[in-house]
Amino acid sequence: MTTSDMTETNATVTVFCDFIESFERQGPYKMNVIKIMLKRGHEEWFQPISADSIANEYYDMVREQCETHSLTGVSKVFHEPFSQAKIENHLSSLPFEKLTTEPSKTGKSPFEVIDGKLVVKEEFCISTKEAHAMIQFAVEKKLEQYFEMKVSTTER
User: What range defines the domain where residue 77 resides?
Assistant: First the structure.
């Protein structure tokens, strides 16, 4: 990789991380979707993802976070027994839709929905370990901020 390529890659990763940072602390939903994508590893994380393929893992993740962090205000579908259809609908209407919205702070979303699948736009499909680690750190940091904020508001 040339110095020019590395500079371009770093700039792209920075835009991606700025996109993650731009989200207000509205819930863990969007970060959980990205976290599930990142679990695939640095060479596969950016492959398209469908609501039906992650529904179970996503439901379990949010439920575990509700219990671990005493989250309130979480969608009622997470307080009910697992329903594939309800979780798919939730994923499509909330995190998938929100992840494709162009934020005013960064002006560019790295995601789009194509044929019902969440897709990372081509210019953001970076398969280096460094890029993967930076994005993973940004997601974990955002989740940590959210959980800390929820704890501080419940202690008041």
Answer: 3-154
**Which helix (H) or strand (E) segment is 18 a member of?**
helix 3-21
How many structural domains does the chain have? 1
Local confidence band at 4 (pLDDT 50, 70, 90 cut-offs): low
pLDDT for residue 80: 96
Backbone angles phi, psi at 9, to 5 degrees: -60, -45
pLDDT-derived band at 130 (thresholds 50, 70, 90) equals very high
* Burial status of residue 87 (CB atoms within 10 A of its CB: 0-12, 13-18, 19 or more): buried
DSSP 33-95: HHHHHHTT-TTTTTS-EEHHHHHHHHHHHHHHHHHHHT--S--GGGGSS--HHHHHHHHHHTH
Tell whether the model's pLDDT for residue 149 goes beyond 60.
Answer: yes
What order of strands is seen across the sheet that includes strand 117-120? 49-50, 117-120, 111-114
pTM given for the model: 0.92
Rama region for 39: left / alpha / beta (φ>0; ψ in -120 to 50; rest): alpha
